[in-house]
Specification:
CATH architecture of the largest domain: Sandwich
CATH topology of the largest domain: Jelly Rolls
Strand content: 25-35%
Radius of gyration: 23 Å
Shape: elongated
Number of strands: 31
Structural class: mainly beta
Length: 479
């Protein structure tokens, strides 16, 4: 099915979504709203939202409508990574669970669910679409009782709506990833084209402006554009949500119209690596062994910039890690186990001794200062047009590097292979090593305020002229 791909031509022009909200399942992030009035239909309505997944392999609720007596309907991903809609009445559960798996953490999915539990045809009481394609193959499709309540719109029973969780308790299937453009429309089975359109050049499904829709009684629209009031309902109905465990840091510019790179939890040398902050923070694993993690959105051309912040290190050896880039082909050849320093087309900057790392140029070749103190910011500028690589430590380019020097590669010390597709990454040894990754939308408070030439990103250091943060809009223009 169509997905928002790195080369997505839908990234240029058209309607733009400014913000999403980043959810961390380990922090129990969610939004909740209780309906105190309004007798909207509790059997018919349409929900549309965009999601980009973080963690896989766990039960994660995207949105839930819950009645005061615990009746509810939950839209979620299962621990098998299937899309699921579950209805629960006072005594039974009725599950619709997709045959298809949804394991792509690099792309955005648009989920549209149309509820009509009063429909005389049982199989038409709910319809679900992912990126405009209807799910018609269900591994489980239990009969939904006639007129079963959906819990999203009728306020007479004190219904609660929850985004990013099932209902707010400690075991309630918290979501991990990004959610954008959350729309609820009461008593209407809207056309998909009310929420999106097919890009005429790429054929990719993309969002459109929904602000002029009629949302109905207790309908809602969350665009997450107010960092100080993330639960604001922009539908005009005033159905604001309560913000639980989310802060302004969780407002992101990674959206369904400008998809930013994150770390790729399907491309890991150690399966037990613990990512948080929707795949932007590495919290180690359970043993001391070399482990490598790589980014989404590989690049073949252009000039790109990203940063890594050191959050924690092993006290006895605080800088046993390597930041750099790797040929994605060599990653696949090594079954994801190749450290940056171990291959001919992996290039990095080593914390221990500040040396450059590449097995064809020497593990110990002199390059720059050592790093590894908590709070260190390492910037990486990669020039794939001139095949050069530069690193900065806390604002200073190492080896007197000048990323704007072009083909001369002043101070680069790295001559990259040509015709190679690269991913960014880090190799580290100890479980105590912790890092956060900033491709433009940092998961931590960043006061630098430095963006690229197109105005994207928030970096600690200034982005070199001609270099860009790694997102689909920049990739469509410069990649």
């Amino acid at each position: 099915m169509p997905i928002i791909l790195p080369a997505n031509s839908a990234a240029s022009g058209g309607f733009g979504v400014a913000n999403s909200l980043r959810f961390d399942d380990g922090s129990s992030d969610n939004l909740s709203g209780t309906l105190s009035s309004g007798s909207g239909s509790d059997t018919k309505g349409t929900i549309s939202l965009w999601v980009k997944r973080g963690h896989l392999g766990t039960n994660q609720a995207i949105i839930c409508g819950k009645k005061s007596n615990s009746e509810r309907v939950t839209v979620s991903f299962t621990d098998e990574n299937r899309f699921e809609i579950q209805f629960i009445d006072t005594s039974n559960a009725y599950n619709w669970r997709s045959t298809a798996l949804f394991r792509d953490t690099a792309s955005w999915y648009n989920c549209i669910i149309k509820f009509d539990t009063g429909n005389g045809t049982a199989t038409s009481r709910v319809r679900a679409f992912i990126n405009n394609e209807e799910i018609t193959s269900w591994s489980m499709q239990e009969t939904i009782p006639n007129d079963l309540k959906i819990g999203f719109f009728n306020g007479t029973d004190g219904n609660t709506r929850v985004i990013g969780a099932r209902g707010g308790s400690s075991t309630d299937k918290f979501f991990d990833g990004y959610i954008a453009e959350v729309v609820g429309i009461n008593n209407s089975l809207n056309d998909n084209t009310d929420f999106g359109e097919v890009d005429e050049d790429s054929g990719i499904w993309k969002p459109i402006d929904v602000s002029d829709l009629t949302f109905g009684t207790n309908g809602f629209y969350l665009d997450f554009e107010s960092s100080g009031a993330l639960g604001t309902d922009s539908s005009g109905n005033g159905n604001n949500f309560t913000v639980n465990n989310l802060t302004s840091i969780d407002q992101s510019i990674d959206t369904c119209t400008n998809n930013f790179a994150t770390m790729n939890n399907l491309l890991l040398s150690v399966a037990s690596l613990n990512f948080t902050d929707a795949n932007l923070t590495n919290n180690g694993n359970s043993s001391s062994t070399w482990r490598t993690m790589y980014s989404t959105i590989p690049v073949l051309a252009g000039k790109w910039y990203f940063e890594i912040r050191i959050n924690k290190t092993k006290t006895s050896d605080p800088n046993n890690f390597i930041i750099g880039i790797q040929d994605i082909g060599q990653v696949f050849q090594a079954a994801n186990t190749a450290e940056i320093q171990s291959t001919s087309r992996g290039y990095g900057y080593r914390g221990n001794g500040g040396n450059k790392a590449n097995n064809t140029t020497g593990q110990g070749s002199s390059y720059g200062d050592s790093y590894g103190s908590i709070g260190d910011i390492i910037g990486c500028a990669v020039d794939l047009d001139n095949h050069k690589l530069y690193f900065r430590k806390n604002g200073t380019y190492q080896n007197s590097g000048d990323p704007t020097s072009g083909a001369t590669g002043t101070g680069s010390a790295f001559d990259l292979a040509t015709g190679v597709t690269y991913v960014f990454g880090i190799s580290s040894y100890y479980d105590d090593d912790r890092h956060s990754f900033n491709f433009g939308s940092p998961p931590y408070s960043e006061s630098g305020g430095n963006s690229d030439g197109n105005g994207y990103g928030n970096f600690a250091g200034s982005v070199p002229s001609g270099y860009y943060s790694l997102n689909t809009k920049n990739l469509a223009q410069y990649g």
